[in-house]
Amino acid sequence: MAVLPIVTYNDPILRKYTEPVTEFDDALRELIRDMFETMYNSEGVGLAAPQVGRAERLFVMDGRPMLEEGEEEFPPTAFINPSIVLKSGGRVPLDEGCLSFPGIRETVFRHDIVKVQYINQDFEEQETEAGGWISRIIQHEMDHLNGILFIDYLSAFRKVMLKKNLEEIDTGDIDVDYPVVPRG
Ligand code: CO
Question: How far is the centre of ligand 1, averaged over its atoms, from the C-alpha of 23 (Å)?
Fold first, then answer.
């Protein structure tokens, strides 16, 4: 297993529409293990393949640190070739961060509930309906597979406020306690 360096803003791979996973083999198992290790090493709750330099439709999630009282625990899961088949509920605000944007947290509105179909780390087809943080993480990570980033949802005002922070990330002028791909 290996901790992989994380791609940060504004690497062009983060803007790619990713390709479906086609080979269900040991190399994919190893990539998934490495992505989990990378996510845990950086204390993230979700990590998408483009963030480790792979333009593939795959993300990993372990939302247990965000578990709230009374919520059912959702185990660590890999989502291979996921598709969101339903979004429902109102749009709710939550403060999101992203391992590709060290130091930034911003309020983003998203649908409360999603239903997602995917293949898991045991290469089994699954369908999950989720609310709360699990829904939130799924929507954030799904966006990564389509080249969409959480800053895209911010108001023009917030983007102006963050301009300097974003420039610092873009130029690699950041303090981060996990390995990142050098910028520039
Ligand atoms: Co992210």
Answer: 24
Q: Can 141 be counted among the known catalytic residues?
A: yes
Cα–Cα distance measured from residue 173 to residue 34, given in angstroms and rounded to the nearest whole number: 26
Please give the Cα distance from 138 to 136 (Å, whole number).
5
Calculate the alpha carbon distances from 71 to 2, 66, 74, 80, 132 in Å. Answer: 32, 10, 9, 25, 9
Examine residue 120 and say whether the peptide bond preceding it is cis (omega within 30 degrees of 0). no
Distance 140 CA to ligand 1 centre (A): 6
Distance separating alpha carbons of residues 131 and 59, to the nearest angstrom: 18
- Which structure tokens are listed for 166? 């974003």
Beta bridge pairs of residue 74: none
Q: How close is the Cα of 47 to the center of ligand 1, in Å? A: 7
Catalytic position from the list 56, 141, 167, 168: 141
The verdict on pTM exceeding 0.90 is yes
pLDDT in tens, 40-99: 999 999 999 999 999 999 999 999 998 988 888 999 999 999 999 999 999 999 999 999
Rg, C-alpha atoms of the chain:
16
The torsion defined by the Cα of 44, 63, 145 and 31, in degrees rounded to 10, comes to: 70
